[in-house]
Amino acid sequence: MILGVPRSLVARLGWTTLGYGGVQALRLLNNVILTRLLAPQIFGVMALVNAIRVGIELLSDVGIVQNIVSNPRGGDKDFQDTAWTLQAARGILLGLCCVALARPLGSFFDSPDLATFLPLASLFFVFGGFSSTAHGLVQKELKIARFSMFEVGLAVVTLFIHVVVVLLTPTVGGLVLASVITSAAGMIMSYLYIPGMRHRFTIDIGITAQLLKFGRWVFLSSIVYFFAMNFDRLYFAKQITFAQLGVYGIARGLADMISLFVLRCSTSVLFPTIAAAGLAPVELRQKILRGRRTLMAGAAFAIGAFLALSPLAVRILYDPRYHDAGAIVQILCVGLWFSTLTATNDSILLGLRRPAYPALSNTAKLLTYIVGVPLAFAYSGFTAAIAVISAGEVVKYAALWALSHKEHLRFGRDDLVLTIIFAVTAIAGAEIVHAIGLGGGSLYAQLLVMTGL
Length: 453
Description:
Blueprint: H1 7-37, H2 40-58, H3 64-70, H4 77-108, H5 112-121, H6 123-129, H7 134-140, H8 144-168, H9 172-190, H10 205-239, H11 242-277, H12 281-317, H13 325-351, H14 356-380, H15 382-404, H16 412-435, H17 443-448
Helix pairs in contact: 1-8, 1-11, 2-5, 2-10, 2-11, 3-7, 4-5, 4-6, 5-9, 6-9, 8-9, 10-14, 11-13, 12-13, 12-16, 13-15, 14-15
């Protein structure tokens, strides 16, 4: 045990941190290079393309990977092949759906580029559908080192492809093409997870029934999750210019670096560990309480410091066209902290095979966005709408906290103390940066000022 955290879990988290850190460093380098080559409005269109692509994918998600991780038969050859067959068929259908929606969506968002490039983006689904299911098996067997090395390798390939293609074609089409080529490379590399692993088209009725039974709540959760995570991009695409949307997309990308790390730790380490443990909720809470405190305290310091330093980091990394992203990141970081608390509880409940609770809490978050974001934008402007985006994470946390009580998974007092640590770190860090002449003002002023947007 290390500070209450089992050594095996520390090792897995260590590999996850190293792998994710390497991936995000490469992605950040890729992002910084591309912003030097492309105008903000190109990133705005690409943000919308990605939101639509993710939406089409999640609106038909039945949790193939989650099924493989949580089902006792997940490692069986027939189970893997049936899951892969369903995944491949779904990929083809989603590709056709993307092509069919290209013109209507291009007309709705008043973007000819969208109508032109969505058919090309449909190849994402085909390549993803034919990717190996070894990803889920590696997670199930907790081979975190292998998973992390694979992700770093794919990030290197992604960086190379994007820079080369965008240098040759510095347009929205170039970005879409680079992403499609990267998706094809990811499909090929997925068969290197477990050397010699191959799939054949198989449909086992019993296994299919198991996949769909567990997947129905994953399906509902994915629908709600998509709209909750992408409502801002879809709404802002109709309300602000694509250049402003591009700046917002950069800010969201920076904030998502941490949220995706927490999600990676939760889904790749915490979820399969809990699923394999087979403990009752009360016993599980007692077992993980001390370790959760330690890990989340580290997260509180990290996110608080990130909030304080983000405007400075944006000014250093990006040219002046993107500097407004720094203030946006700070507002999003408040929600980021609560989404971090929620992510761990999501994975705990999913590991206990309670997928309904994350779906319901995401519904509460989505309702906050549907009602709050348009009202805030109409009466107080863009800054207030972004503040509602952060507030939605608080609502989601509160809903999941209430639902978790039914399973005797109570972390309320711990989370209150952790939130105080986060707030103190953020305020102190911002004031220190300001005092040594590297910041633009107090934290309060930074959160209110959004020049140029």
